[in-house]
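Record type: ASSEMBLY
Status: queued
Input:
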Amino acid sequence: MNADFQGWVKSHQLQIESYLQNHLPAENHAPKRLHEAMRYAVLGGGKRIRPLLSFAAGELNGADETRAIVVAAAVELIHVYSLVHDDLPCMDDDTLRRGKPTCHMKYDEPTALLVGDSLQSLAFQLMAEFSLAENPKKQLEMIKQLAQAAGSRGMAGGQAIDLESVGKMLTLPELEFMHIHKTGALIRAAVMLGAYCGDKLSEEQLDRLDHFAKCIGLAFQVVDDVLDAEATTAALGKTAGKDAEQNKPTYVSILGVKQARELAKALQHDAYQALEHLGKSTHRLLQVTDFIVQREF
Amino acid sequence: MNADFQGWVKSHQLQIESYLQNHLPAENHAPKRLHEAMRYAVLGGGKRIRPLLSFAAGELNGADETRAIVVAAAVELIHVYSLVHDDLPCMDDDTLRRGKPTCHMKYDEPTALLVGDSLQSLAFQLMAEFSLAENPKKQLEMIKQLAQAAGSRGMAGGQAIDLESVGKMLTLPELEFMHIHKTGALIRAAVMLGAYCGDKLSEEQLDRLDHFAKCIGLAFQVVDDVLDAEATTAALGKTAGKDAEQNKPTYVSILGVKQARELAKALQHDAYQALEHLGKSTHRLLQVTDFIVQREF
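Status: finished
Output:
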């Protein structure tokens, strides 16, 4: 990671942290325990990969950062709500997340349930509250896209497919179908909504960007599976080896580590190709792509 | 209930049922089990009191029914998501809802969790997808209001206060504070968003309508508490006597049944008064008020 990009990552991670700090309900406002738990779940952790994608896609498309940051925050809130719910005992039953006790371990199950529910509401509140586009009709379209990405045909649906697949042998296309929903839909939303904050794009440009987003969404998951199989819990900040323990099909269980790493490279290459001929300055988005594929924890 | 109003209730209950039928994901679309469970939770049950309020408030304000029905559906989806999550074992641990096994009893806990999550997304998707106002900026404001009513300063926050109050003696103002959030916020949204679908209202008219909505939100809860204490499980369609069993503070535990009934009447009177001098044809909204206060199950 070169120094310029490192600085960009750091400054945008700080920006999103500060924005979330300011837009989450204050801890001293009733109900205090819920608000404290919401802040605990959201703040001070995570690589903020989805916000970085929104910022980079916005930058590529000349978006005002005061707009891109709203989208970045909303997408991150949806992501964190999904983590809080996924960690619950009735789902993955996990105790460690982003290096800290999971929300229901630190607080309790009903509070964690309400934290997730409230974070989802807050995401849509921010998307409706602040101006994201000259044309408010475009902003309505953006809200619709985020709702679709989060819902039963997107992220939550992917989670349902994941539940059904525990203990089953999936084919590679079935696994891909699951991840296109479970992680892909929201990563795609992060890219597309970031870009929508900027100039108008042609149909062809939107298609290319969409294909790029699909590729990195999958690449992200492949790398995640490799890290879950290889990294330690300490490095990962969440319980390592959970997939194998829970008998979940992963890219590693189907392909093995070596081939999974090759698949991640191939997807990275596809992502690169999708951004060629976009007629935009894509270097930041390519840097974030490398950041996603080459991350070690 | 006179025949005219009975017909209006019936026809609007059918309309909202049919709209929800058409806008919930189809059961044969993947993930099928999740979509089946979403439809199970939403369809074929409930008095649809919040949608009726949206329709009546829309009618009062000359709103096109093709708009009011979107708001009615979105509010009902938020309401049903909250019921599905509230019934989970880590919350109220209930087995019966609207005369049927609760969602997690019929399916399983993780599915019920995702059903609630997905219904919330779908509510915001509908609010953004269909035109609700001439001015799309007004529609963004409506989405923001629904998000606030649902979130940690509204319904979900009320639920958190409820959790904290189990086993405690609350004063009447504390109980009122809880219910203004837990049930009041969404009932208020049902009324206000229904009205927003129509003509522009003056500040004074909005204030009056808002006060009306607060009164019936509380009246609704007082009646609910009385019914929980007096009705049978069969008549209620959900487990009766849960409040006392769970040692929850209610209007009945604080005031007794007789005084609680009087409070409901007083709130009904306040609601009536708020609608006087509104300069609008309020008879339908008054009929719905009576329907809420006089319902027997």
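Annotation: The domain at 3-294 of chain A is CATH 1.10.600.10 (Farnesyl Diphosphate Synthase).
Annotation: Chain A has one domain: 3-294.
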